[in-house]
Amino acid sequence: MQLEYIDRSRYRNKEDAAFINTLREHYGRFYLLPEGGSNALAVKGCAEIVAEIEQDFDFICSACGTGATLAGIISGLKEPQKAIGFAVLKGAGFLRDEIENFLQLSETDSPAGWQLNTDYHFGGYAKTTPELWTFIEKFKQDFDIPLDAVYTGKMFYGLFDLIQQGYFPAGSRIIAVHTGGVQGNFGFSQKHR
Question: What is the number of domains present in the chain?
């Protein structure tokens, strides 16, 4: 693999045919990984997450950046299971359309049983607050499971908050997908000390 670093102005045009043709001219035949690895193959792969869960469940939760992981999870659901994506971006309402597009690419009919929660972004992508960081540290202390401040910390914070609010019917079985990402925590921990 060869990584191609580009500046912000070129990045804004990352999907333009002219930019892609420039890459083709320079590298020949290549595979361009989309942002977040988000494409139909990613959705198909993420559908396997649901297939590997051995417990029956009512709800499955995931952090949501580009929408591909959530779309894959949705495509693997069986009625009456429901998925909740916790957006990590500020102003992420547009992701609903992105998720629908991913579901169409994967030739999956969008079941009614999913939603995107946009209330727990803590200021936006890779943004954090002392409140979120305190939650992440307490979660590690209580459960010995590390969370990251970009994705899983926000998702678990939102999930615990919804549980506390009584959002889920009594007796609900909830799966939370931990997507990793804890390697970035060192910088955040230094910021909140």
Answer: 1
